[in-house]
Specification:
The chain is α+β, with helices and mostly antiparallel strands. It is about 45% helix and about 15% strand. The protein has 6 helices and 7 strands.
Length: about 200
């Protein structure tokens, strides 16, 4: 519904839509349809950095249903760099060609496990939270200045992102990444929950 709403606004105002779908494969329940399914006036950007844990390998792409939207990107790109590094290309081919072992499915299963761990702990602690449909992040309500709270957590060697960095709707929220090893995730979560409880008592 949100996708269709965004596309309708862009269509009515003749706006070219550029969408980052790099997290799309990391879904919790079901794969979200691509914006390409609903519009020809859209360019989708994606890559292997999240779905295959290949951050830094510089393998990505732009896709559109309309050739004329991609042509200027190709023309600009060829003056910036010739192509992706040779080694990155070979690794990407291997990652995308292995039919017996699907790395993105393995990553997705681990994330789903972590998600269930963390949401159970947040529910027990009666904390309000929001989750995206496809990304290893959770927003947690803290009812205090999110930037100051994030700074306080640094003294406990815990890094979170203030919600206000994402706009005014994020004020008094923090964002955490649950794409970690279980022992690190639970250690960080314990510190975080204890700190929030101190604020509310």
């Amino acid at each position: 519904e949100e996708t269709k709403f965004i596309i309708s606004i862009c269509k009515n105002n003749n706006i070219l839509l550029v969408v980052d779908e790099v997290y799309r494969e990391l879904y919790l329940e079901k794969l979200t349809p691509s914006f390409l399914r609903y519009s020809n006036n859209v360019v989708v950007i994606s890559g292997l950095s999240k779905s295959h844990c290949m951050t830094g390998w510089r393998i990505g792409w732009c896709i559109s249903n309309t050739n004329k939207l991609i042509e200027p990107i190709i023309n600009t790109h060829q003056y910036l760099c010739t192509c992706a590094p040779y080694l990155s290309q070979k690794v990407a081919i291997k990652a995308l060609s292995n039919k017996e072992h699907d790395p993105k499915e393995e990553i997705r299963i681990k994330l789903k496990y972590n998600y269930e761990l963390i949401t159970k702990a947040l529910k027990i602690s009666n904390l309000k939270y929001l989750i995206p449909s496809s990304a290893p992040y959770i927003f947690i309500k803290i009812d205090t200045d999110d930037q100051l709270f994030a700074e306080e957590l640094l003294s406990d060697k815990l890094i979170v992102i203030p919600g206000s960095f994402f706009g005014s709707n994020g004020e008094k929220w923090i964002r955490i990444n649950y794409g970690l090893e279980k022992n690190i995730l639970m250690k960080g979560l314990k510190i975080l929950i204890n700190k929030i409880k101190l604020l509310t008592n």
